[in-house]
Design goal:
The chain is an alpha+beta fold and 171 residues long. The protein has one domain (8-18, 28-166): Transposase IS200-like (Alpha-Beta Plaits, 2-Layer Sandwich). The protein is built from 6 helices and 6 strands; from the N terminus they run ααβββαββααβα. It has helices at 8-17, 31-37, 69-84, 110-128, 130-135, 157-166; strands at residues 41-42, 47-48, 51-56, 87-94, 97-103, 148-152. The strands form 2 sheets. It has a 4-stranded antiparallel sheet, sandwiched between helices. A two-stranded antiparallel ribbon has the order 1-2. α3 crosses α4 (110-128). The longest helix has 19 residues, at 110-128.
Amino acid sequence: MARTKTNWKIVQQLQQNAAGIDYKEHFQLAENAKVEIATVRKTRHSVYNINYHLVWIPKTRMKVLAKPFDGQVRETIMRVCAWKGWTAMSLQIMPDHVHLFVSAPPKWSPSEIVGSLKAWTSRELRKRFAIIRQTRPETEDFWATSYYCGTAGHVSAEVVARYIRENAGKY
């Protein structure tokens, strides 16, 4: 860990805030998200059902996303999703990672979604909390560059056939 530019003294102070939280808890999909998975959404030029389960971590997997930082991350993610037209179905912020279940139109790739959310949340955390700036004072990166993306949804052959029947002659 000596190779990173992380200020470990500050990180240890922040991790004390997260003590007692089971950060290995698995992501629980919200009840309303189970209904949202099946929702077919429309834009001006597309009909889609695209759902992503996204997970990302702070640099060096720092366990610092406890109060009050988790609230700022949550508020920023929800604001960006609303602004970009994404539907955030479920969000869970653990001390060392973020789970987001989101639906987005086909023009948005998972990497664009994660990139936007990481950039906005990092910027907001650094702007509002000086102690976050001190965790990695020589760099501007708060989040690790990697992320996990899984897809979810259900489209049966019946649904595809019904869509084709209902939209025959429209194109």
